[in-house]
Amino acid sequence: MLSARRFLFAAIVLYNSFASAVQPITVQGSNFVNSVTNDRFQIIGVAYQPGGSAGFVAGSGIDPLSNGTLCLRDAALMQMLGINTVRVYNLDPSLDHNLCASIFNAVGIYMLLDVNSPLPNQSLNPKDLKNSYNADYLQRVFAVVEAFHNFPNTLGFFSANEVLNDISTGETAPPYVRAVTRDLKNYIAKHSPRKLPVGYSAADVREILADSWAYFGCTVGGSGSDSSKIDFFGLNSYSWCGGDATFQTAGYDILVSQFSNTTIPVFFSEYGCNKIMPRVFDEVQALYGPEMSSIMSGGLVYEYAQEPANNFGLVILYSNGTAELMVDYDNLQAQYNKLNLKALESGNATATKAIAPACRSSLIISSDFISTFTLPLLPPGAQSIIDHGLRNPNNGKLVDVSETLVAPAVYSSSQRRLQNLAIKKLPDDESNTPDGSDTSNSAPTTASSSAGQPTPSKKSMASRPERSIVDIILQLDGEAGAYVDYIIDPCTREKASR
Fold this sequence. Notes:
Largest sheet: 8 strands, parallel, barrel
Number of strands: 14
Structural class: alpha/beta
């Protein structure tokens, strides 16, 4: 009897170590839906790129999901914040992401992943679309899929980010974005254990926004099997600025009207204007309120980690592993705690049965936007890669998350150390939700640690002026030739020029 009990205990421990904390999310019409419960899934998330521009350096062996100790710290803080999704921009598919992905899985947080990076030949270049769309580029794109398709908390992939960033790019770039989407989805269909959504993240260029959404979301030939159609549409929007903004002054009423007949999920792939500091995040109540939630599928706040160059962060991360919450974190947490989660999870039979329209020129409003849907052919060698898969791909897998206690010291916005900070493994395949946590009134520390607490010298190191991602991209562009698309600087929301 004793041995049987021990066996049962061991089996339970083993199950709990590897049990999936989330159920895969699928796309049904204009909604994200839990594949098991059929509850609607609303994205409550943040952009996650610790280190900012320094978070991804070629050959460094480091990317945002490669350090389990730091992912454990951040997952614990995100769990208290109340989010259920992170967006990660720049990933090295050759690295081991198993522990970080498993940690986020254990706490009920999904991952939306960009397949591109600012490095040479790792993104479409609007100034040289034909040459930047090649087999070597697609190998990198497919490698990201291979690295993450096994994780149940992989929510989907962005095939491109802000490639259409001014009116002129609307004339040439859309067919290439659809082509990359097609290639990604065809590769996933052949080599992934499950269907994974692929979408686009758009710059908030209102002159071409409606046409971008219409162009990418229709089906060529009216076929439901058209792999070039995006599965979701993200918008990087910073129009709600400060506590005096309203639904109308931020233009949210226009967005709701524009997307009212969407047949795919639409959400903010970035949001959080910082013209007025600290940010109060009043837009959260609008985004998840009755006026928008029936149309929009949530959003991702930009961004988790503070960068001196842009001042969009929720948390200050120090080089020794310690972290300090900002007032913005407290304010966002308070807004999330007000959400009506039951209402957000309610399904809509009409929305889930929405069918994409057939692609036709009449869908396009602007005469400056391309209205034909002929896509580029696959570059030489690409079809063989899709058919046979990458050689020796680096396939990620769930691993045991045995450590739950956060080792680095973490401090509240009032400089009080957070005690016993740890992740909470969620049972019964739950995703994370706001739980009423309030870090703004954290109890004072009872165990001092001068080595861990941020000191003026550590803060000086942490706040040393860094080059923005725009600077690095433009520098790389000058060194390696034009290979990356222009991007929208999140500080100014303007196109970065060379």
